[in-house]
Design goal:
Belongs to the threonine synthase family. Keywords: Pyridoxal phosphate. Its cofactor is pyridoxal 5'-phosphate. Its EC number is 4.2.3.1. It is a single chain. By secondary structure, the protein is an alpha/beta fold. The protein has a domain at about 240-445: Rossmann fold (3-Layer(aba) Sandwich). The chain contains 22 helices and 16 strands. The chain has helices at about 20-25, 45-50, 55-65, 70-80, 115-120, 120-130, 150-155, 175-185, 200-210, 215-220, 235-255, 275-285, 300-305, 330-340, 345-355, 365-370, 380-395, 400-415, 435-440, 450-460, 465-470, 490-495, and strands spanning about 10, 15-20, 35, 95-100, 100-105, 140-145, 165-170, 190-195, 225-230, 265-270, 290-295, 310, 360, 375, 420-425, 480-485. The strands form 4 sheets. A 6-stranded mixed sheet has the order 4-5-15-10-11-14, with helices on both faces. Helix 1 crosses helix 6. The structure holds pyridoxal-5'-phosphate. Pyridoxal-5'-phosphate binds near residues 271, 324 and 401.
Length: about 500
Amino acid sequence: MKKMNLIYKSTRSNNETVTASEAILKGLADDGGLFVPTSIPKLEKSMEKLANMSYAEVAYEVMRLFLTDFTEEELKSCIDKAYDSKFDTEEIAPIVKANGAYYLELFHGATIAFKDMALSILPHLLTTSAKKNNVKNEIVILTATSGDTGKAALAGFADVEGTKIIVFYPKHGVSPIQEKQMVTQKGDNTYVIGITGNFDDAQTGVKNMFNDKELAKTMNDKGYQFSSANSINIGRLVPQVVYYVYAYSRLYKNGEIAKGEKINAVVPTGNFGNILAAYYAKLMGVPYDKLICASNDNKVLYDFFETGVYDRNREFILTSSPSMDILISSNLERLIYKIADNSAEMNSNLMNGLKTEGNYKITDNMRGQLDSFLGGYADEAKTKQTIRDIYEQTGYVIDTHTAVAASVYHDYVASTKDETKSIIASTASPYKFTRSVMNAIDEKYDSMTDFELVDELSKLSNTEVPQAIEEIRSAKVLHDTVCETEKMKDSVEKILGI
Ligand SMILES: *Cc1c(COP(=O)(O)O)cnc(C)c1O
C-alpha cells in the first residue's frame, strides 16, 4: 500500500512546501517561519497494541506518520541507533508515582535531561535526510542553548561524519554542572562558545545567522550549510510526541487507567517544544485532556494563557530552573499559526509585532481555541518548597524544572479539585542541578563542593550517580572561548575559515 506523503509548510507564507526530510535539513523556513505539517496524522494502532510494544516500536508507529518520505528501513535504523544502551534503562522513559502524580522520567539518556529524547535521534534523521536529498555540503549545526540542549546536541553530533556543531550558551546563565558538561565535550567537530548576553541574545544571534542570505552563499561556496538542532526543528518535535503516546500506553498497560480514560499532562516549559509535542499527541487521538503549561518566574506563557497577550517586555530573571529562563518561546509560533486557522498572514503579523514591539495580542476567536491549555507558574520559594515537600513525604527527589511543574500541578489540584490522573514531565535528573536541589532539601548543604553534593544526593535519594556525572568529575576543559553577543557571527566565520 502506498502511503500518503505528509507535506510541511512554513508558518509565515503559503509558498514554501517541503517534505519531512527537507524540513529536517532546513530547520527554519527561508521566510523565518517554522515548518508545520499540513495536518496532524491520527494514530493507526490501537492502545492495546501500543501497550505491548517497546519504546522503539512505539517510536516507529508515531514517527512514520510524520516522516512519510523516510523508508521503513531508514526510520527503523535511526530509531535503533538512538534508543539503545546510551539510556540507562530499557524502558527509556520510565514512570514513577509519587504524591498522587505520575512522573514521566525523561532523563535517562546520555546527558540526563529530556533533550536527549530527541537529540539522540536527530543526528541520524539529519544525515539520512542529507543523503535522501543529495546534499554534498558539510552540515554545520548552529545552536543556542539555555544549558541542556547544548550538551545533548554536542553528545548527539560528536564525531558524526559530515557534520560540525557550534554551540552558543549564556556564560553566566547555566548551572556549573551544565557548563562543565559542555566545555569538556570531546569530538573534533565540536565547538562551544560562551556569550556575554543571556539565552534570548544567543537565540536571536543564531536566528540572525540562519536568516543571513549572504552568509549562506559564502558558506555554500566553501561547501557548508547550516542546519538547526534547536527545538524549532521538526526533527526535534516529532520524537517528543513519541513519549506522550508511550506514557499513556504504559499507564494503560499497568492498569493505572481504564480504556479511553482522559489524563492531564503538566509540562515545565521554556521554548514550548515539549508541551507542543503533548498537544500533537492529543491531536493524534491519545486521550489527553488538560495540558498544563508550567513556567518559572519568567512567566510570559502564564500571562499569555491568562490574557491572550504575549509580552516579552519585562525583566529577564535568572532562576534555579535555567533551561526555562526564556522570554521568547519559539515553538509557540506553531500553536499561534494553528489557532489562526493556519493563516500564515495572521501569524506573520503577530510575529512581526513580537519582533518590533516585543508583544502581540491574539483575537478572541483564537483564544477560544486554546481550551486544551492552562498556564501556571511557580516562583523560586515555591519551587524549593516543592522539592523539599516531595522528598520529605515520599523520599523521591526531583530537579528544579520538574519541581516547577509539580508545584503548578499541586496548586491546580488544590484550586480545581480536578482528580484527573496526571503525568508530570520530569525533564532533568536532580544530579544535573544538584546544588539547587540539595539546598532546597536542607540549607546545611550550602558549604559542600559540587561533587560532595553529588555523593550526598546519591545517599539521600538511594540512587546511583549517573554515568554522565561520573564522567565529568575528572574531565579536562577543552573549550574556553567567550565572545560578546555582537561577535557571534565572527566566531562562526573563524571556525569555518570563511
Ligand atoms: C529545555 C528544558 C525545558 C523546557 O522545554 P521546552 O521544550 O523548551 O519548553 C524544561 N526542563 C528542562 C530540564 C529542559 O532542559
